[in-house]
């Protein structure tokens, strides 16, 4: 075979300058005078481009990462060129470009899969996926794209380039640059795990980048009302009709553990009556699709009886209370009832779990079923023993053992009198 000339070059396309002033970085392959161009999926400020060397200039992390990508690409092209020469005995610029494109497609791109995943889930919103969960998917994708742009100067990345370092850098970026809470970071990491799992199923990636990675877990705390605060909510007069209706729904959730969205989905068919006069709610939670089974306490039953009158089998029992109205009402109810910790509607569910159930000896397994949790680990977050519960338990112990305690105290006093 005659000796062929082979050359690679990187340059910026100034004619395609973007609104932010950056220009796309292009690659060019030349073999025996034949040229092909391709996009690197990167862009850079023209002032940071060294045309002579085909690299970025500057010592910033972004410039270093772009140069590293270009060097890796150059090596990939050289490797593929040598491979084709060995296999076929000849190489054309077009053939080399096509082979590189096929390799790229077979490796898969992370954000392409993210877009595909989101679009596949879109028809399920409101059916098997909550609207809030779907919004989180979109937000998580935006965070990862922001990280790619800032760290690598690109809006997408191949699965083949994902490793432990990538996951660790993303975690650091979300903590330090974006200053996000551990809960939000965990949400984004879980989304990335989903995308990695898809890549593994499609054979884009073999080794799991999350091996040995341990993310900081958010503190599992839940805000709730104490018994005294709950009494204040129950007993304080509220003249405003809108706030009074909201209070009734809040109290109902505080004595059933239902989330606002599940309470609003209640119909008479979800209420099961028994021969002994008791009744319970059976409803699948929107969030987990797990059935919650909740025997009705007297206060909850009184509120239910008020609203269920005249309702047919499939009629909604309670009036609609959207997020904004619930938040506005809770702010005002909290002020009227002098609740200093900042009242939110979801605190009703936490109050049921902690103050109504756990503080009164309800087993964790029973609470798990009433809350409709798919995993008892979620329920155990509510297992934090409150200061009030500690005082109540110790007071009962002191009353029960008061005689023994007093006898021991008298014995100590006599002993001290002898010694001193």
TrEMBL record:
<dbReference type="Pfam" id="PF00589">
    <property type="entry name" value="Phage_integrase"/>
</dbReference>
<dbReference type="InterPro" id="IPR050090">
    <property type="entry name" value="Tyrosine_recombinase_XerCD"/>
</dbReference>
<dbReference type="Pfam" id="PF13102">
    <property type="entry name" value="Phage_int_SAM_5"/>
</dbReference>
<keyword id="KW-0238">DNA-binding</keyword>
<comment type="similarity">
    <text>Belongs to the 'phage' integrase family.</text>
</comment>
<dbReference type="InterPro" id="IPR025269">
    <property type="entry name" value="SAM-like_dom"/>
</dbReference>
<dbReference type="InterPro" id="IPR010998">
    <property type="entry name" value="Integrase_recombinase_N"/>
</dbReference>
<dbReference type="GO" id="GO:0003677">
    <property type="term" value="F:DNA binding"/>
</dbReference>
<dbReference type="InterPro" id="IPR013762">
    <property type="entry name" value="Integrase-like_cat_sf"/>
</dbReference>
<dbReference type="InterPro" id="IPR035386">
    <property type="entry name" value="Arm-DNA-bind_5"/>
</dbReference>
<keyword id="KW-0233">DNA recombination</keyword>
<dbReference type="GO" id="GO:0015074">
    <property type="term" value="P:DNA integration"/>
</dbReference>
<dbReference type="GO" id="GO:0006310">
    <property type="term" value="P:DNA recombination"/>
</dbReference>
<dbReference type="InterPro" id="IPR011010">
    <property type="entry name" value="DNA_brk_join_enz"/>
</dbReference>
<protein>
    <submittedName>
        <fullName>Site-specific recombinase XerD</fullName>
    </submittedName>
</protein>
<dbReference type="Pfam" id="PF17293">
    <property type="entry name" value="Arm-DNA-bind_5"/>
</dbReference>
<dbReference type="InterPro" id="IPR002104">
    <property type="entry name" value="Integrase_catalytic"/>
</dbReference>
